[in-house]
Specification:
526 residues; alpha+beta; 7-stranded antiparallel β-sheet
């Protein structure tokens, strides 16, 4: 299971169907943890929390206790979707002047206030059935017993070996010579296991107002970080809000608004909907060109509207979601069409239709590349996300300000029932990946839509694409439109890590990203 790169075309490895529930995550062991909880009587939220905590152990480069989370929960009994938002916020001591005197891209001075555990704690308390101790058990076992490093994890350690060697967590990912541990090496994390057992005994609150919080604050003070006890206590209660909602075709699309990145995704879907009468198929070269133009326009508008989009609202940029504006905007995008990462995501749904789409992150791969050696926790690097010069910017550094992310966990529903759960990693490429998969689902089966080649376009007109998987005609259509191509490897890590659940005719189909280490799974009794 720890190296399946030669079998990315095999749906049996990446997809599953079930009528009793579904779990899809970026690591196969986290999927197993979530499925086990469903089989033991837990609901979709219990399964999501168990899988999420397992990811914090077995996918440490992407997320963990020291990071952030944003979770969409669809409750079929109310026909309503909620957002639990836990961005990493600026500590009180992290002023622009203080940050100007330190290196804030890696190390303790890069760490914003962790909020991940507060989100899953609140989700479990509000919507779960099981106790904190029960859902944390699989993560404890993974940390104590260890798991084999995958080929992707060894490759990431090879790519980021320099910041890892400068930090204090190199021993987990590099050998005594500073080289990446080979694929299949067993990774045990005894310090993290002890921390998880403390949470099992004392409750998740201990992370924010108890002994774990004191250890984090002391570690930060000793090593020049800014996070203190008062910051952690403030982060203990995440916001519960309504999602951003727009209509795509005849369905409702809900996603997370600022400081997360769902606004850009909905803007892209508005443009696609406005161009919907073209009846293009995914194999058509003009389909690729349309995708690139939509992504480029949305990314350009995101940059152009940045001072009108609030840190936690979109009131100043609501016209980006206006169907009439989209209709006017899309005209130039479809002219001449007839002619020539680092994050983790999971989705869960149970047999009753309760659904979760959850994105969690420590910012770039390996976050700040430092952590608490005593606790075994790798810290986030979100202080680099703040602006320190432009005071008009919505993410200008101020005490308690939320760090911006590109997370766009998404739930598509119809008549109050969740039908598609999707989300992706990949920084700015998350929204463009979700866009392409939702567009392909109109024509293709779930595995084919997720497995298909992807592209991304920058405001400057640079198209990043898995070029060898696109037809020559598609590549010519892109270059003929004046776009510059940057070739990525087939199944590139850089186009994101997407997780998908589709509900149709009473059955759930889960698809895990073939570019990652994940799996889809449902309860084994059907």
């Amino acid at each position: 299971m720890f190296d399946r790169s030669s079998r990315r075309d095999d749906p049996a490895l990446w997809s599953e169907t079930s009528a009793r529930g579904m779990v899809v995550t970026a690591h196969y062991l986290a999927t197993e943890a979530g499925v086990r909880v469903l089989e033991e009587g837990g609901n979709a939220v219990d399964a999501a929390v168990a899988a999420s905590l397992a990811l914090a152990v077995c996918e440490p480069a992407g997320s963990g206790l020291g990071g952030m989370a944003v979770m969409l929960i669809h409750d079929p009994s109310e026909g309503r979707t909620r957002v639990l938002s836990g961005p990493c916020r600026a500590p009180g001591l992290a002023t622009p002047g203080a940050l100007a005197r330190v290196h804030r891209y890696r190390g303790h001075a890069a760490v914003a206030v962790p909020a991940y555990l507060a989100v899953i704690r609140q989700a479990l308390a509000r919507f779960g059935r099981l106790s904190e101790a029960r859902v944390i058990a699989p993560a404890i076992a993974l940390a104590e017993e260890g798991f084999p490093l995958t080929g992707l994890q060894s490759a990431l350690a090879a790519e980021y070996w320099r910041p890892l060697r400068r930090g204090n967590f190199a021993h987990l990912f590099l050998d005594d010579r500073g080289k990446p541990r080979p694929t299949g090496s067993l990774l045990r994390q005894p310090a993290l296991a002890r921390t998880l057992r403390r949470l099992e005994t004392n409750g998740f609150e201990d992370f924010y107002r108890g002994g774990i919080a004191r250890t984090i604050a002391e570690d930060m003070e000793v090593h020049g970080g800014f996070v203190r006890l008062v910051d952690l206590a403030t982060a203990a209660d995440p916001r519960e809000t309504d999602p951003l909602v727009a209509h795509f075709e005849d369905r409702s699309v809900a996603t997370a608004g600022p400081p997360a990145g769902g606004l850009t995704l909905l803007h892209m879907l508005r443009l696609l909907d406005a161009a919907g009468n073209l009846s293009l198929q995914p194999e058509d070269p003009q389909w690729s060109l349309l995708m690139a133009r939509i992504v480029r326009r949305a990314r350009t508008d995101r940059r152009r509207y940045r001072l009108r989009i609030g840190a936690e609202d979109v009131s100043g940029a609501s016209d980006l979601l206006d169907p009439l504006v989209a209709r006017d905007t899309v005209g130039p995008l479809v002219e001449d069409l007839a002619g020539t990462g680092e994050t983790s995501h999971l989705c869960t749904m149970d047999a009753n239709g309760l659904a979760v789409s959850l994105t969690q992150s420590i910012e770039r791969s390996f976050g700040a590349a430092v952590g608490s050696a005593e606790l075994g926790i790798l810290f986030n690097g979100y202080l680099r996300a703040f602006k320190v010069k432009n005071q008009r910017h919505p993410h200008y550094l101020a005490p308690g300000a939320p760090a911006r992310s590109n997370a766009a966990p998404t739930i598509v529903s119809s008549r109050g029932e969740a039908q598609v759960l999707v989300g992706s990693t990949g920084s700015e490429r998350a929204a463009s990946g979700i866009l392409q998969v939702l567009a392909r689902l109109r024509h293709q089966a779930p595995f084919d839509a997720a497995h298909a080649p992807r592209l991304h376009c920058t405001p400057e007109g640079e198209v990043l694409l898995e070029a060898d998987r696109f037809s020559e005609r598609s590549r010519r259509a892109l270059t003929g439109a004046g776009l510059r191509l940057t070739t990525l490897d087939p199944y590139s890590f850089r186009v994101g890590g997407l997780q998908l659940i589709v509900r149709e005719n009473g059955r759930l189909t889960g698809v895990s990203e073939p570019r990652r280490d994940g799996a889809a799974g449902g309860p084994r009794r059907d």
